[in-house]
Specification:
With 273 residues, this protein is of the alpha/beta class. It has a single domain, classed as Nitrilase/N-carbamoyl-D-aminoacid amidohydrolase (4-Layer Sandwich). 19% of the residues lie in helices and 29% in strands. It has helices at 18-27, 51-57, 68-80, 153-161, 178-189; strands spanning 2-10, 35-37, 83-92, 95-103, 109-113, 134-137, 140-144, 166-170, 192-196, 201-202, 209-210, 216-218, 224-227, 234-242, 248-250, 253-254. The strands form four sheets. The protein has a six-stranded mixed β-sheet. Strands 6-7-8-9-12-13 form a six-stranded mixed β-sheet, covered by helices on one side. Helix 5 (178-189) links the parallel strand 8 (166-170) and strand 9 (192-196). Helix 1 packs parallel to helix 3 and helix 4 (153-161) packs parallel to helix 5. It is globular.
Length: 273
C-alpha cells in the first residue's frame, strides 16, 4: 500500500488573464503535495467567442519545448516535487484540442485530449484522438479524463482497464450531477478520482454559464475524502491510500473476474441509435 498527498485545486479564473490565473492556481497547491489537479482550461477561462480566439491562447503540448504555460507547470513541478495535472487549450498543426497535460517533477509529460465534447465545444475543438491513456507517475498509475467525459461510464472503465489507480478529472462543470456520479464511477472501478472544478460565471457569447465548484477527492470505494464548497476557491486536500491491482469488492467478488461480457450489449438497439 502506498500513501499519496493529493490536492484538487478550485479556482475562479479571469478570462484571458493567463499569468494571473496560473499564479493563483499554483499558489493554492499545498507544500509537500505529491499530486495536484488543476481545472479544465485553467489558465485561460472557458467561454471562447470563436475558434480563432481559442487558437490565440492554445499551446503546442507535444513539442520538445513546452509553451509558456507548460513551461510554468514544469518549473513548478521541478521546484516542488509535485506532479501536476492541468487542462489547457492545445494546438497541434491546424487542429485545436481541449486537453489535459500531466507534468512530472523531472519535466516529462503525458497528454490526453478530451474525447467527449460538451455543447459549444463542438464548434471549437476536435474530438480527442489519443483514446484514454494511463501514465506512470507518483509511484502509481494515473489516468486522465476531462469534464463531460464523466457522463460516459466507458471513459472511467477504459482508464481502469488500462491499469489506472487514480483518475484525474480537470473540469469546468456546469451541470449539477457529476460530483455524485463520480462516487459511483469510483466504486464500479475501484479507482480513486480527483475532480478539480472552477467557480464563478462567464457570459462572453450571450449564453451565461455558471460553474458548479465542489471539487472533490473520492477514494477507490467511493468515500468523499475532501471537497470544496460551490463558491469557494483553494485546495481540497486528502491522503489517498493506493492498493495496486486489487479489485476485490468483497472476499468473493472480483470486479474484473465477475464480469460477464457475453451478457452485455455493446451498442444500442437500432431503433435507439
Amino acid at each position: 500500500m502506498k500513501k499519496l498527498q493529493i490536492a484538487a485545486i478550485q479556482t475562479h479564473p479571469e478570462f484571458g488573464a493567463v499569468d494571473r490565473n496560473i499564479d493563483t492556481a499554483l499558489g493554492f497547491v499545498p507544500q509537500g503535495c505529491d499530486l495536484a489537479v488543476l481545472p479544465e482550461l485553467f489558465s485561460t477561462g472557458y467561454q471562447f467567442t470563436s475558434r480563432a480566439e481559442a487558437l490565440g491562447f492554445a499551446e503546442n503540448l507535444t513539442a520538445d519545448q513546452p509553451g509558456p504555460t507548460g513551461a510554468r507547470l514544469a518549473q513548478f513541478a521541478g521546484d516542488t516535487g509535485t506532479t501536476v495535472v492541468a487542462g489547457l487549450a492545445e494546438v497541434c498543426g491546424d487542429t485545436l484540442y481541449n486537453s489535459a497535460v500531466l507534468v512530472r517533477p523531472d519535466g516529462s509529460r503525458g497528454l490526453y485530449r478530451k474525447v467527449h465534447l460538451y455543447y459549444d465545444e463542438k464548434s471549437l475543438f476536435a474530438p480527442g484522438d489519443l483514446g484514454f491513456p494511463v501514465f506512470a507517475a507518483c509511484g502509481t498509475t494515473i489516468g486522465l479524463m476531462i469534464c463531460f467525459d464523466w457522463i460516459f461510464p466507458e471513459a472511467a472503465r477504459s482508464l481502469a482497464f488500462g491499469g489506472a489507480e487514480i483518475i484525474c478529472h480537470p473540469s469546468n462543470l456546469l451541470l449539477p450531477w457529476c460530483q455524485a456520479a463520480m462516487v459511483t464511477r469510483s466504486q464500479e472501478n475501484m479507482v480513486a478520482i480527483v475532480t478539480s472544478n472552477r467557480i464563478g460565471t462567464e457570459n462572453r457569447t450571450g449564453t451565461p454559464l455558471a460553474f458548479s465548484g465542489r471539487s472533490q477527492i473520492v477514494s477507490r470505494m467511493g468515500d468523499r475524502l475532501a471537497a470544496k464548497a460551490k463558491d469557494d476557491t483553494g485546495a481540497a486536500v486528502a491522503t489517498l491510500e493506493i492498493f495496486e491491482k486489487d479489485k476485490l469488492f468483497t472476499p468473493r467478488n472480483d470486479l474484473w473476474g465477475d464480469r460477464r461480457p457475453d451478457m452485455y450489449r455493446r451498442d444500442p438497439a437500432p431503433d435507439q441509435a
